[in-house]
Amino acid sequence: PVSIFSDFSGLHKIIYRLTFVTQTYIIEKHIKPALGSVLLTKLTPSHLQNLSAKKIKEGYSRRTVKYIHTITKQMLSQAKSWNLVGTNIAEVVSCPKVEKKPVEPLTQQEVNNFLSALKDDPLYSLYVLILSTGLRRGEALGLKWENVDLVEGVISVKGIITSVKGKTTWGEPKTASSRRNVGLPDFTKSVLIDQKLKQTVESEYVFCTSVGTPYSPRNILRHFKKMAKLSGLPEETTIHSLRHFFVSYALSQGVPVKDVQEIVGHTDSRTTLGIYAHLMAGAKKEAAKKMNKLFDGTAVQQ
User: H/E element holding 164?
Assistant: First the structure.
């Protein structure tokens, strides 16, 4: 008899979307306690449905539950290829749908209030960088001085900071599109120059603790929530909202979707459009308003 976890070391290789550490965490935390003692020949769709229902009841997001289901499905697919099972029962189990809520970007006034509250905070420059470049939290925290050109005003995104089970680590981006060069607005460049001058500890990281180590994403999240509340941002605001603001502002200023896609590191423009399509309508309206200038002069009357 073979348990689903009699030997899962080789199965990690097929789960390509998550880091090895995250894969192990999801397996050990969620899948193994529920399915580890179940023989493959006894595994039923009800086991997987009950697992998903249990995780949702425990308060986990549908995105997390979907990850759990995806990993289980891939593992069973490998088991099928090894002739350990005749069918992959995960294929007949409906995966919880991730509800995609329309992105509601922060207003310019809300961003101003947020930055005003942060003016004397050590992490002020971190938030300015995210707001003005659209970097992800992990990308900003993983930025090293060797990848910052303060003369040309360009940064190279070559790594990310992640934290799993309390361990903070630096690693390479997951996709080729995430490795990119991003231009810095003059204001952001001056903020980073000031950051460099004020940094009292020797560290390869642009944003580091008092001992030179990179910040934990969890600590940054706690700090953000505190400052967001202090500055009066909407309760549903997340640190990812700063990235959303960058995209929405860029689109409103007429920056082509393709350019925005490359700046923020989306795989292709379809991803950008899929997330921000509803904002494009507003951008098009603004473009139409600008066209009015063409017809309000004497040339139209001739």
Answer: strand 160-164
Per-residue pLDDT reduced to its tens digit, 124-155: 999 999 999 999 999 999 999 999 999 999 99
In whole angstroms, give the CA distance from residue 178 to residue 298.
49
pLDDT value for 156: 93
Is residue 157 a contact partner of residue 182, using CB atoms and an 8 Å limit? yes
CA 181 to chain centre: 18
Specify the DSSP class assigned to residue 31. Answer: I
228-245 average pLDDT score: 90
Residue 219, classed as helix, strand or coil, is: helix
**Cα atoms in the Cβ-side hemisphere of radius 13 Å centred on 289:** 9
Nearest Cα neighbor of 42 from 13, 14, 1, 12 is 1
What is the gyration radius of the CA atoms in the chain, in angstroms?
23
- Residue matched to tokens 């706690």: 222
Q: Kindly report, residue by residue over 150-194, the tens digit of the pLDDT.
A: 999 999 999 898 887 678 888 888 778 788 899 998 999 999 999
Report the distance separating Cα 216 and Cα 138, nearest Å: 9
The predicted model scores a pTM of 0.65
DSSP string, 235-257: TT--THHHHHHHHHHHHHTT--H
The whole-angstrom separation of Cα 180 and Cα 264 is 9
Is residue 42 exposed (0-12), middle (13-18) or buried (19+ Cβ within 10 Å)?
exposed
Q: Supply φ then ψ for residue 248, to 5 degrees.
A: -65, -40
Angle value at C-alpha 269, between 265 and 273, nearest 5 degrees: 110
Q: Could you tell me the two tokens for 215?
A: 């910040």
Mean pLDDT of the chain: 81
